[in-house]
Design goal:
The complex is a heterodimer of chains A (116) and B (109). Chain A is mainly beta. In chain A, 0% of the residues lie in helices and 50% in strands. In chain A, strand 4 and strand 5 form a beta hairpin. The relative contact order of chain A is 0.32. Chain B is mostly beta strands and 109 residues long. Chain B is globular. The chains are: A mainly beta (116), B mainly beta (109). The interface between A and B is medium-sized, with 28 and 24 residues.
């Protein structure tokens, strides 16, 4: 059971480049989300999805797009990378809703992104 | 507005000493609060949730609505407790988690 799988583990981009961070889960979880982790700021929610075809913005959505065409996959797209997007990105999923009482979040291993 | 505050970025204690990681929240309704932990080279994972009133790995956390706090405590810290700890609050229609900024706990031998 792979759980939540993120690819790539590391990525270096130049300013203005675009890329997609992949996230897949094999637990049939309805809820998926993307967080970024920055020193001193903890984890901040970028986008989330409560099911296939449904996405919504989190706390820091600017510069990122998501889609949820299948239950398993929730890719995060950086449209035009900026140095401020240098961060560690985590994908997380849960059975229902966002990690509430009966549905803890399962996290991926993270993607470390550097934008130069 | 910061909904979850963890005032200590770094906390060091000696093995066997009590440890308390502070968490304060801002929420007018009935809060759903959690502690997540990230050990070195491991994934972030749920440690405990307030509703269960459980003790995991010797840690407990009591919700104090009057002080809007959810501090994490352990009476005798162990070296393997060294990790990054995050307090989190479930918000919104999807109960998405809002995390605090985290506390890096180091238990010294």
């Amino acid at each position: 059971n792979a759980g939540v799988t993120q690819t790539p583990k590391f990525q270096v981009l130049k300013t203005g480049q675009s890329m997609t961070l992949q996230c897949a889960q094999d637990m049939n979880h309805e809820y998926m989300s993307w967080y970024r982790q920055d020193p001193g700021m903890g984890l901040r929610l970028i986008h989330y999805s409560v099911g296939a075809g449904i996405t919504d913005q989190g706390e820091v959505p600017n510069g990122y797009n998501v889609s949820r065409s299948t239950t398993e996959d929730f890719p995060l797209r950086l449209l035009s990378a900026a140095p401020s997007q240098t961060s560690v990105y985590f994908c997380a999923s849960s059975y229902t809703r966002g990690g509430g009482i009966n549905s803890p979040l399962h996290f991926g291993n993270g993607t470390r992104l550097t934008v130069t | 507005a910061q909904r979850v505050t963890q005032p200590e970025k770094l906390l060091s204690v000696f093995k066997g000493a009590p440890v308390e990681l502070k968490c304060n929240y801002s929420y007018s309704g009935s809060p759903e609060l959690f502690w997540y932990v990230q050990y070195s080279r491991q994934r972030l994972q749920l440690l405990l949730r307030h509703i269960s009133r459980e003790s995991i790995k010797g840690f407990t956390a009591d919700l104090n609505k009057g002080e809007t706090s959810f501090h994490l405590k352990k009476p005798f810290a162990q070296e393997e407790d060294s990790a990054m700890y995050y307090c989190a609050l479930a918000l919104g229609s999807a109960r998405q988690l809002t995390f605090g900024s985290g506390t890096q706990l180091t238990v010294l031998p």
